[in-house]
Amino acid sequence: MSDKNRHLLSTRIKSVPKSFIREILKVSNHSDIISFAGGLPNANLFPVDEIAQASAKVLEENGPKALQYSNTEGDVSLRNWIAQRYKDKQGIDVSPDSILITNGSQQAFDLIAKALIDEGDEIVIENPGYLGAIQSFSLYQPKMLTVEVDDNGMNIEQLENVLDNSKPKFVYTVPNFQNPTGISYSQQNREAVAAQIEKHDCLLIQDDPYGELRFSGEEKESFYSLIPERTIMLGTFSKVVVPSFRIGWIVAPEWLMDSLIIAKQASDLHTNYFSQLVMHQYLQDNPVDQHLEKIIGLYSKQREAMISAIEEYFPEGVTVATSDGGMFLWVTLPEGMSSMDLFDDALESKVAFVPGHPFYVGEPQENTLRLSYVTVDSDTIREGIKRLGKCIKNRMS
Amino acid sequence: MSDKNRHLLSTRIKSVPKSFIREILKVSNHSDIISFAGGLPNANLFPVDEIAQASAKVLEENGPKALQYSNTEGDVSLRNWIAQRYKDKQGIDVSPDSILITNGSQQAFDLIAKALIDEGDEIVIENPGYLGAIQSFSLYQPKMLTVEVDDNGMNIEQLENVLDNSKPKFVYTVPNFQNPTGISYSQQNREAVAAQIEKHDCLLIQDDPYGELRFSGEEKESFYSLIPERTIMLGTFSKVVVPSFRIGWIVAPEWLMDSLIIAKQASDLHTNYFSQLVMHQYLQDNPVDQHLEKIIGLYSKQREAMISAIEEYFPEGVTVATSDGGMFLWVTLPEGMSSMDLFDDALESKVAFVPGHPFYVGEPQENTLRLSYVTVDSDTIREGIKRLGKCIKNRMS
């Protein structure tokens, strides 16, 4: 028996869209290629020594307890820290009991889907939107409805239209420095989205991996402030501290939390407890805001380098979405130019990006692409953008 | 909005059996109670210093790379180590490419279910069987068929009957020192099970968390030796090294592995990479067999203490299932005596166990219970069994 056993596979697994980003990352991973394709944070800023100190301290102070099984909800000190952070940074009151520690926010998608989605249920996602969420939700075979996002946030007319004609379990949003577009929802847009959620008696997921990486502009209000009982918040330490620990969290209302805990228990009992303790120790011993300043300093400098290089080397007719932070710029090429074709040209010129295609559910907008500025230094960014500009110009002529 | 939102919950999450073990563990967790209820390994044996050394070394040698995102399949050195271990201990050839690192073997259930189970699909599980697996599979709404296990393994007649009358995706087994019963499948039983699997063109899951904890008797053949292309093997470091890292694995045939990787990626991208490196470093620097000897030495001594106390203090008519290793003894009370009732008596006498009830799918055998001997020292075991014996005698008279 071998491939003939493929008939044993579930319909659900066959319904997951193939991640062709993985393929892109493979070809763009060679050292002689200037890659704007990645979605990883800059490892040069990881607090290696501080994590080493925190690890040693955790084992010294907790002994074998740090290595035993633990509770499903997650370490209570870490949940207290997260609750306090919401209070300090956003003025939001979140109870530690309403926080569940997950394996990165990627697992949050899976647990929420387990608790809320039956086959054929409707959900609403941003278009373009975060691939990881789309992939995770699709395993539970929902009907995905889409609402476009632009520089201001969600298209409210479309949202209203979708909600008038469906009964979705939730609307999934990344309102701060969205992946892939880098855009944020304006204050006005948030209020309008919140009003629609209220009106249609619906839930909203606010995924927020990049919210702490603000370079400019003013902090906007959390959906949790606007519609607390209808908002599920996701968070992660992956972009702020380190990703390899896979520590994220869900903030959820009480009626949902019990089900999320059951889902988490069934999925993997609990998140790596040793790493939860190390993360908490790190956060206690090191001022995270100082660390954030370093990240923001580097990323914003490199973003500036990218924007100014784009202004210099990209031809007229190419636009970049407005962004005040995060990790990505979203580029729209002249009408009719395919970023998939451009990708092949670019690779020949030893520069890589992610075509917009995979971020769309349904018909993609073919002339879009995503650039990451976080892992490449400013000089290399200039060189890469110069090469890319040449490729675009060649296609135009 | 509040509890009225419970209608938003999925049917799937409502179909998960409530874990009343959690409740039992809560009440039996007080320090004045002698608890045989737990399912945790003995933390006194955890290699705290060695893990501290491995953690420091990993960060020193790998730097920020140890803290970055990693691949979905898992660290290749760790997968090589696991493959080599199968070769050394069981004479089995497993390719590292056929190994996927998971968050404990609990996550293996979830990923396998994602890849194989659609709602209403049939699966076969042991009765009584491992609760964690039952809970995890049930989220995918299969039809669960059961086959009884006894001192020799699976009831072959029942298995044949079930397979004749259904088309299950897989048969789930814990052939070595099963949880909850402690029994192992005999060599003859394995061959008979394998023949049924072949005959009915089916898959078999061999879950093996306790296989390395053998105190007596001879190692039996792995199903992987008997029916390699039909066997999915699960493993974990939780009982052999430490549980808090949540590191387990799946060995699966190629046609299934692609789907498992997609499922893993959608679930949480990858398992904590730092901890994978620390685990591998620990395994490189410390002879795991010496560590196992310590565990086996302590557990087998405590099991002896429990068995001899049972012989002394339990009345005639109480039987204990044959076991050569692992963490549990399975007790059958006289016909008609409910272990749920006994549990209340026992708690008053400050001793706790897990009634057999929750391990059954369908009608439970009410007069069964599970005792763990691993976390309580020999003298305390004697005292606890003495109290429990008194409670049983009181119920008999």
Care to give the gist of this entry?
The structure is a homodimer of 397-residue chains. Chain A has 14 helices and 14 strands.
3D shape of chain A: globular
Name the CATH homologous superfamily of the largest domain in chain A: Type I PLP-dependent aspartate aminotransferase-like (Major domain)
Number of strands of chain A: 14
Strands of the widest sheet of chain A, in order across it, are 2-9-8-7-6-3-4-5
The value of Rg of chain A in angstroms is 21 Å
CATH first level of the largest domain in chain A: which class? Alpha Beta
Q: Output mean pLDDT of chain A.
A: 95
The percentage of residues in β strands of chain A lies in 5-15%
Count of distinct structural domains of chain A: 2
Low-confidence stretches of chain A: none
CATH architecture field of the largest domain in chain A: 3-Layer(aba) Sandwich
Which structural category fits the helices and strands of chain A?
Answer: alpha/beta
Largest sheet of chain A: 8 strands, mixed
Multimeric state of these chains? homodimer
End-to-end separation of chain A:
54 Å
Order of helices and strands of chain A: HHEHHEHEHEEHEHEHEEHHHEEHEEEH
CATH topology of the largest domain in chain A: Aspartate Aminotransferase, domain 2
Helix content of chain A: 40-55%
Chains forming the largest contact: A-B, 82 and 82 residues
Helical stretch count of chain A?
A: 14
